[in-house]
Automatic annotation (TrEMBL):
Chain's role: Catalyzes the ATP-dependent phosphorylation of 3-oxo-tetronate to 3-oxo-tetronate 4-phosphate.
Record protein name field: 3-oxo-tetronate kinase
GO molecular function: ATP binding; kinase activity
tRNA processing found in the keyword field: no
Keyword terms of this UniProt record: ATP-binding, Carbohydrate metabolism, Kinase, Nucleotide-binding, Transferase
Organism: Caballeronia udeis
Amino acid sequence: MSKPLLGCIADDFTGATDLASTLVQGGMRSVQMIGVPYKCSAPDADAIIIALKTRTVAPEVAIEESVAALKWLQAAGCEQFFFKYCSTFDSTAKGNIGPVADALAKELSQELVIACPASPANERTIYRGHLFVGDVLLSESGMRNHPLTPMTDSNLVRVLQSQTARSVGLIPLNTVSQGPDAVSAALRALQVEKKGYAIVDAVCERDLLNIGTALAQHRLVTGGSGAAMGLPANFISAGRLSANTSTAGDLPAIDGQSLVLSGSCSVATNAQVEYWKKSRPAFRLDVLALADGDVQIEEAQKWAGRFLPNEPVLIYGSATPDIVKQTQEKLGVERAGSLMERALAKIGRALVEYNGVRKLVVAGGETSGAVVKALEVKSLRIGDPIDPGVPWTIGTGMTDLALALKSGNFGSEDFFEKALAKAP
């Protein structure tokens, strides 16, 4: 059994899976742990990703949990560390990207840290420090109406500077495109200027590989999963990792029924729900009804039981921004979200226990976290991708399960169908 090389801390569950998928494609056998595994020994893997739920909690809580995860990864033998946040850089007004990165950098005594949420495969690109989603600025995308972390500023230098006392600089695209040596030189120049962070432009995978190559000696890297794309090659070049990348994502077969659960209200997930409903059975949960008790949860379980022996079903709470806003005005943002997460988690567990479900596709980071917790999943072995950033995984807990945990904004319109067709 080999020691892990790369230790990662992710601020939500689907982000952790996205990162793990990137590392698997680079040839690193990857395992995702659910929460800080205090009493668990390190798994046999090249990369370990600890998935937290710290994106929207109080900064002091996010810092405490993230530092605890770092210390566990250090004790496990990891040599380099990665702090993963969303490719849309979303956070609350108080953080938590800046506060957590500050704490990790202090623990690792790193003076300059990059911040690069770019994910070109998912149309997240950075130019002159501004984050684009597809062809529009972040502030003009659907993220401006996100119910928990609305993003109304596309200037990442400005956004990060508001969250940290460290000075934030920029490495522009014309430098990145020149290659790893140019990136390294720019990093040294920013250190001389006493910068604590460097937002790094990237518009394509080649840019991300250039950035990754330049970070071989950096103990801490922060960004979206794309920023980790070049890290496995550094270990291969150093003779620490096998160059054979074809088997890193191999998973065993899982037999059983299939279920899709969706709590995300993102534009992408809403389109995926509508696509599914054209030809497949779907049951919509209403948050206001859930506020009155568990009657609708029981109805959903009975409804699903009629279909599951013969075909997969979708149970969803996804809704348009207008409906989400109306619901939040009546129940409050936090209560509305927790009611839906609890309902989908409870339904998922019941259908696994009593209806033979063994393959689950879950849409939404918060929903995924609630579902894996309800299913008592302790770790995930990461497989090959379904769509960029979303792999199948094998979860070990109350029973072995195949799980595809999808960030709300990820995946093609036919993602649910595509995922089930590729299930292990």
